[in-house]
Write a structure and sequence with these properties.
- It is found in: Membrane.
- Its main location: membrane.
- Keywords: Membrane, Transmembrane, Transmembrane helix.
- This is MALL protein.
- The chain has 155 residues and is mainly α.
- It has one domain.
- It contains 4 helices and no strands.
- Helix 1 runs antiparallel to helix 4, helix 2 runs antiparallel to helix 3 and helix 3 runs antiparallel to helix 4.
């Protein structure tokens, strides 16, 4: 008697597309990643960028990550993945690498925040407050990228 087991029935769940992307973990993290990353870029740009070497890296990481995450979100919404398992690998590698880059950017932004409080480069307390908010959002964004990377890995 033939077995009723089929390999197609044991495959992993399909990748979401359309509006289901916003309801499925870990793909639902993409929109908050973009939102928080955009705030990092806006807040750093709102300061006078007193430490261009430190904050230049922060702005590069936040802007490039936002744009690539937006492209990834668009590709999921419109179903460009065609339910290929390679997209899970791509997604996991991208979010893992971006989490590492964002961690470096968050630490550099925290350093710029500490330096903006103590040095006479920025006399306004507003710059310290903007730098503090940028540091906060940088660490939140790092956490979101880490959650996304591990969620897709353990899915």
């Amino acid at each position: 008697m033939a077995s009723t087991f089929s390999p197609a029935a044991s495959t992993q769940p399909a990748l979401p597309s359309g509006l289901a992307v916003f309801k499925t973990i870990p793909y639902a993290f993409i929109l908050p990643e973009i939102f928080c990353g955009t705030w990092v870029w806006i807040l750093v740009a709102a300061t006078s960028v007193s430490f261009p070497l430190l904050q230049g890296w922060v702005m590069y990481v936040s802007l490039s990550s936002c744009l690539i995450s937006l492209l990834l979100l668009i590709s999921y919404v419109f179903g460009f993945h065609k339910n290929s398992e390679n997209w899970k690998v791509l997604d996991s590698l991208y979010h893992g690498a971006t989490a590492i880059l964002y961690m470096s950017a968050a630490v550099l932004q925290a350093n710029a925040t500490i330096r903006s409080e103590s040095e006479s480069v920025s006399h306004l307390p507003l710059y310290y407050q903007l730098n503090s908010a940028a540091s906060f959002f940088a660490f939140i964004t790092t956490f979101l990228y880490i959650l996304h990377a591990f969620s897709i890995y353990y899915q």
